[in-house]
C-alpha cells in the first residue's frame, strides 16, 4: 500500500495541477490534499467539476473544496489568459496530461501539447510561479526500432518517433526545460515508463480489449523482452519529490529531466500475463513473429485510411506492438540521487491494486471466446492464415 511520506517544510503552499482531472492528475490532487500542507487549484478543460461519489479521491476533494483547501478552474491551454487565472497565486505548477486529446488529429495534439506548453510557460512567468514540473514520458527517447537497456538521461531524443504523441511531448519537454531560470522560473520534467494503476485509461483498458477480442492468447516476438513499468502512485510521489527538490534550489534538478520507474524491470509479457490472469482472462501462450505482425498492421492501417475509418485506434495498436516487441529499461539513479525518489508501492502490490480496481471488468475467459465446434473463434481465424489475421485485426480495431 502507498504510504504518506513526510517532507521537511510543512508550511502551507499553493499549487496548481493543470490536467487535474486526468488519470495521473486526479491521483496527484488526492495525494497533495492528503499530505495536508497544500492548497490545490485543480485546472482542467471541463467547464464544471463532476465528482464521483464512489471515488475516494473525489471524496477527499469534495471535503477540501468545502473548506477552501481546493478550488476548481476551467481552462483551455490554448488560451494564456485562462491559464493565468487558473494558476494565480501558485508557487508550483504541476503540468500533467491533457484529457481531451484526439490522437487522429495532429493539429489538435500539437495545439494542446506543444502550444499548450508554450502558453503554460508564459502564464507561469506572468504569474511569477516559482516552479513548473512537467509530466513527460520515457516514450520520447524510443524510436520504435532499437532496444533500450538500462539507459540514463544522457541518451538523447532521436527525433524519430513511432507515434504522434511522443513527438509532441518531446517538443513540449524541450520547451519547458529551455524555460528554466528565465524570470525566476525553475523547471524540470519527469519521464515515467509504462504508467499503470487504478483509473488507467490506456494500458489496462487496451489489454482488456485485446483479451476480449481473442488476442490474449498471443505473444508478439520471442516474449523475452524486458520493460520498466511504473505504478501511478509512484509517479505522483516523484512529482512531489521534484517540487521539494526544486524548492531547495538544487541546481542538479532545475532544467533537467528524470526517468521514473518502479525500479523492478520485468518481462513485458509476464506483466501482461499477471494482469490478464488476475482478471480471469487467458495468459498469452502462442508466439507470433513480430515481423509478420508489423506488415499486417501496416496493411490494416492502409485499409482503414482508404475507408476513412475514425474508429481505428492505430495509435494504441502500433504503440502496443512496439512496446510488446522491444526491451525498454531505464536507469533511475539520477532521480534517486537528485530528487530523492524511490518507489512507495512495489510492482507486485501495484499490480494487485490495479487488478482489484478493474475487478468489475473481470470476465470468465471461456464465456467470451467461443471454442466449441459451432463457432470459429478469432484465434482460430488468425491461425487459419494471413487473411484471417487481417480480418481479426480489422474486427478488433
Describe this structure in words.
The structure is a single chain. With 397 residues, the chain is α/β, with parallel strands linked by helices. It has a domain of 238 residues: Rossmann fold. It is built from 15 helices and 15 strands. Helix 8 runs parallel beside helix 12. The longest helix has 21 residues. The protein is globular, with a radius of gyration of 21 Å. This is Reticulon-like protein. One of its GO terms (molecular function) is oxidoreductase activity, acting on the CH-OH group of donors, NAD or NADP as acceptor.
The major β-sheet equals:
7 strands, parallel
Q: Pick out the low-confidence regions.
A: 365-392
Structural class: alpha/beta
- According to CATH, the homologous superfamily of the domain at 13-201 and 230-262 and 329-344 is NAD(P)-binding Rossmann-like Domain
Multimeric state: single chain
CATH architecture of the domain at 13-201 and 230-262 and 329-344: 3-Layer(aba) Sandwich
Find the CATH topology of the domain at 13-201 and 230-262 and 329-344. Answer: Rossmann fold
Helix-strand topology string = EHEHEHEHEEHEEHEEEHEEHEHHEHHHHH
Name the average pLDDT. Answer: 87
Helix content: 40-55%
* Sequence of strands across the biggest β-sheet: 3-2-1-4-5-7-12
Distance between the termini: 36 Å
- Report Rg: 21 Å
Q: How big a fraction of the residues is strand?
A: 15-25%
SS element count, helices? 15
Name of the CATH class of the domain at 13-201 and 230-262 and 329-344: Alpha Beta
**Structure summary, number of beta strands:** 15
Shape: globular
Domain 3-beta hydroxysteroid dehydrogenase/isomerase: 16-289
GO molecular function: oxidoreductase activity, acting on the CH-OH group of donors, NAD or NADP as acceptor
Keywords: Oxidoreductase
Family: Belongs to the 3-beta-HSD family.
Amino acid at each position: 500500500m502507498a504510504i504518506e511520506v513526510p517532507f521537511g517544510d510543512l508550511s502551507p503552499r499553493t499549487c496548481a495541477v493543470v490536467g487535474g482531472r486526468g488519470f495521473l492528475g486526479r491521483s496527484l490532487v488526492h495525494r497533495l490534499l492528503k499530505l495536508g500542507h497544500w492548497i490545490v487549484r485543480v485546472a482542467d478543460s471541463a467547464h464544471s467539476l463532476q465528482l464521483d461519489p464512489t471515488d475516494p479521491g473525489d471524496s477527499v476533494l469534495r471535503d477540501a473544496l468545502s473548506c477552501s483547501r481546493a478550488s476548481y478552474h476551467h481552462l483551455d491551454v490554448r488560451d494564456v489568459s485562462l491559464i493565468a487565472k487558473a494558476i494565480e497565486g501558485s508557487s508550483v505548477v504541476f503540468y500533467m496530461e491533457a484529457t481531451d486529446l484526439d490522437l487522429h488529429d495532429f493539429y489538435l495534439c500539437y495545439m494542446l501539447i506543444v502550444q499548450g506548453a508554450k502558453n503554460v510557460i508564459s502564464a507561469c512567468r506572468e504569474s511569477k510561479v516559482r516552479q513548473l514540473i512537467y509530466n513527460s514520458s520515457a516514450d520520447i527517447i524510443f524510436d520504435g526500432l532499437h532496444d533500450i537497456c538500462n539507459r540514463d538521461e544522457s541518451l538523447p531524443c532521436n527525433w524519430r518517433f513511432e507515434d504522434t504523441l511522443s513527438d509532441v511531448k518531446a517538443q513540449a519537454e524541450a520547451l519547458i526545460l529551455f524555460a528554466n531560470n528565465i524570470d525566476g522560473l525553475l523547471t524540470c520534467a519527469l519521464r515515467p515508463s509504462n504508467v499503470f494503476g487504478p483509473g488507467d485509461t490506456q494500458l489496462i483498458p487496451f489489454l482488456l480489449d485485446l483479451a476480449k477480442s481473442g488476442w490474449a492468447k498471443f505473444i508478439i516476438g520471442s516474449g523475452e523482452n524486458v520493460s520498466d513499468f511504473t505504478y501511478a502512485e509512484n509517479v505522483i510521489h516523484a512529482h512531489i519529490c521534484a517540487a521539494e527538490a526544486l524548492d531547495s534550489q538544487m541546481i542538479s534538478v532545475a532544467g533537467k529531466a528524470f526517468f521514473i520507474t518502479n525500479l523492478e524491470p520485468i518481462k513485458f509479457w509476464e506483466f501482461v500475463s499477471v494482469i490478464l490472469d488476475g482478471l480471469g482472462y487467458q495468459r498469452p501462450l502462442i508466439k507470433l513473429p513480430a515481423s509478420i505482425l508489423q506488415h499486417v498492421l501496416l496493411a490494416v492501417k492502409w485499409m482503414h485510411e482508404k475507408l476513412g475509418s475514425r474508429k481505428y485506434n492505430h495509435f494504441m495498436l502500433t504503440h502496443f506492438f512496439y512496446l510488446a516487441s522491444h526491451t525498454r529499461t531505464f536507469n533511475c539513479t539520477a532521480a534517486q540521487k537528485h530528487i530523492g525518489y524511490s518507489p512507495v508501492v512495489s510492482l507486485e502490490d501495484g499490480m494487485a491494486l490495479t487488478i482489484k480496481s478493474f475487478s468489475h471488468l473481470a470476465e470468465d475467459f471461456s464465456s467470451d471466446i467461443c471454442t466449441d465446434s459451432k463457432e470459429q473463434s478469432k484465434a482460430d481465424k488468425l491461425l487459419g492464415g494471413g487473411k484471417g489475421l487481417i480480418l481479426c485485426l480489422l474486427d478488433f480495431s
